[in-house]
Amino acid sequence: MSIHLMLVAAYLPADVVTQSQKLALMKIGDSADDETRLSKPGMKRVRAWVGVGEKRCTTIVTELVAKGLIERVEVGMLGRRAVYKVFPLGVPAIPSNDDLDTRFQAADAAPKNPRLARPGVARAAPSKPAMTHEDIDARADLDAMSLAAGEGVKQSGFPRGNPDQTQPRVPPGEPQGLPQGNPKRSPRGTPSFPSSTAFLPSPPTPAADAAGEPRGCPKHATPAASCRGCKTNPRAERAARDRERAEAERQSQRDFMENWHADLAEARQVAHDRPQDVEAARRLARQAARAAREAPGGARSPEK
Predict the structure, then answer these.
(1) At what angle do helices 54-66 and 43-50 cross, to 10 degrees?
(2) β-bridge partners, 38
(3) Which of 226, 271, 281, 287 is most buried (CB neighbours < 10 A)?
(4) For every one of its 304 residues, what pLDDT tens digit does the chain have, with 9 covering 90 and above?
(5) In angstroms, rounded to a whole number, what is the distance separating the alpha carbons of residues 138 and 276?
(6) What is the C-alpha to C-alpha distance for residues 180 and 193, in angstroms, rounded to an integer?
(7) pTM of the predicted model, to two decimals?
(8) Is 199 within 8 Å of 185 (Cβ atoms)?
């Protein structure tokens, strides 16, 4: 157990390791030897310290190896723990109070979200902490006076609100090349691109009036070439025709099977009611087959 290596890992800055990586490194350093800096923490112990799954724990250890904070001496196997060497490039020093003050001052001066920070804008000094309720009331009165004077509420932190109107971000007017105004059936808001052409009227063919062709969907006040609600678009019409054709084929097959079963049942009923007729028909069939075999050119005809 090495308390020194664990403390060194605990004081690493945030730009070097993340919280999960720091916890994993602290556990590996806690299980290391002071002289050799070799550690056998075990995956279960590291997972318990970090509080993640097995795959995520393996990924964190690999990230520490990539950063040069640890290195694998022996790979873990079933029944044998992996061996790591902590800080193979050298053990950093534990920072002093002055080093920590410098680090925290730089972190406090930096923006919380660099992507949203405006260049060239310095952060305002933090407000003086309120000691009593009178300080809070005085601050609220000052904000009310600023609002009445039209100055706005000045608070600490990043500047809020829109910039001055003298320097607008978006140039006035509509951009060139885009449709002017609102298209048909638009929400009457900002100018946008034209919506779907499904509501546009269907242009008739040159001979539509003479041939009496329908002009789109007749169920609407404004005829449309495609109507999903009325199923008048070409794709829906083709699908409907295909369904009707398939249903007609299935119905014809069902009719054929029903007729076939009816004929078969009728033949069985005749055989059951009149067995003498069935026997006579069989006798006639045997005689016809015998005559066919004995006829010239039949199966039993003498060879020429």
Answers:
(1) 90
(2) 85
(3) 226
(4) 678 889 989 999 888 899 999 999 999 999 888 889 899 898 889 999 999 998 999 999 999 999 889 998 888 888 888 899 999 888 888 888 888 888 888 888 777 776 666 666 665 666 667 677 777 788 788 878 877 776 554 555 555 555 555 655 555 554 555 555 555 555 555 555 555 544 444 444 445 444 454 555 555 666 555 565 565 666 777 888 899 999 999 999 999 998 888 888 888 887 788 888 878 888 888 888 888 888 776 655 555 4
(5) 122
(6) 10
(7) 0.40
(8) yes
